[in-house]
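Let's study a protein:

___
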Amino acid sequence: MALAALLVAGVATLVLVRSATPTVPGTVAPTGGAGAYSGPGTGAHGPVPEPPSETDGQRSDAPVERGSGRFVAVAGGSPVAGTGGPLHRYRVGVEAGTGQDPTAFAAAVDATLSDPRSWIASGELRVQRVAGAEAADFTVYLATSFTSERMCAEGGLHTAGYTSCRLPGKVIINLDRWLTAVPDYAAPLAVYRAYVINHEVGHEFGELHEACPGPGRPAPVMQQQTYGLTGCVANAWPYLDGRRYAGDLVP
């Protein structure tokens, strides 16, 4: 009888522990400061990008191929970044069920767009992240390859589930590219992440595609670096040494 009682108690304890394990992530807290994301340099040669570690603010497991199609709107906002010009407000959303940390992704977006080498360096625009319920000019989404392709296709852009895209008011970052960058990029993952944010947000600001200006030179941020550097060196920033860095427009 004593042995039977112990076995029953053990089973009850196991059921209690399992039932106490949460199956849904907790409430998304406001993001921390921009220091949560270490800004990359100007794209010097480095090792081929590796999948991110926990220190990158993202989980290191492989992304899911097909997510829920629903997005978690990140709470909180950021200070205004920039010295002059109209204010562009943006929201951040992360597809639910992907295992990604919405707060960490928002911090990466904030740090990139508030960097003095980003678009605010022009002195002609400012940026600020706002909470999900507030009015915004555009939203930055982190979406699985399946969802990003579907969203981009709604605007007539077919990415084959591989690239990110921008539609009016929507900057859609492909989760696979966010986690692994692209082959032969020859720069740290952080450089690619800053590049893809600046590139797609650049489209939102009216920028067009540009070409590599010559072998060994930094790639313009509006070059389609995801498809290859064509002799240029990876670069994440539209402003280098305080000047707008650009290539010839691509017809």
Notes: Strands lie at 71-73, 87-95, 126-129, 138-143, 165-167, 170-174, 239-240, 243-244. The domain at 66-208 is CATH 3.40.390 (Collagenase (Catalytic Domain)). The longest helix spans residues 2-20. The mean pLDDT is 80.
